[in-house]
User: Fold this.
Amino acid sequence: ETGVTQTPRHLVMGMTNKKSLKCEQHLGHNAMYWYKQSAKKPLELMFVYNFKEQTENNSVPSRFSPECPNSSHLFLHLHTLQPEDSALYLCASSQVAGGSYEQYFGPGTRLTVT
Amino acid sequence: AQRVTQPEKLLSVFKGAPVELKCNYSYSGSPELFWYVQYSRQRLQLLLRHISRESIKGFTADLNKGETSFHLKKPFAQEEDSAMYYCALSGLGGNKLVFGAGTILRVKS
Assistant:
């Protein structure tokens, strides 16, 4: 598998469930990102990890909990979500070393909260 | 605050016609601007960035700091250009991207 992969591709969960989204990049990058894409808003950056350290939390509610165990893997743990959290969640990766680099996106996980 | 505005949700043109997708930004520092594209059933991907000053698939974009704009242009649209186009901004040297709402480009035959 090449590029950025995300699993699952589709997820339906109730408001009391706990689930996790997984992202893996096979590009040797050192930065990873979570974005939320909903119908009513532009693509929103949620979290940024540089060299496994979280460097950005864009005022995301605590019911979303990211985890970056190494530079190739990124998780988004979900618990007690709300219906308005239903959206496409995109993962991306890039190099980062004193310059802006192209971000490579995964296919996304379509999340529906019931 | 960083903000990117794409005023058109949908732009429909005929094949062979010129295309201009508008993008305006708000940023107090030195920005880096990008255009990302998402073709049907494909993932979001970089089309071009202002720093590279290159033409990709016939598209060009010039950063106009006076007008705070980064419009995407192509002289002759092709049907395969039909896609969703996003303008994005980051601080120079940074990796935090702010996206516009996107513009759907439809090229009709």
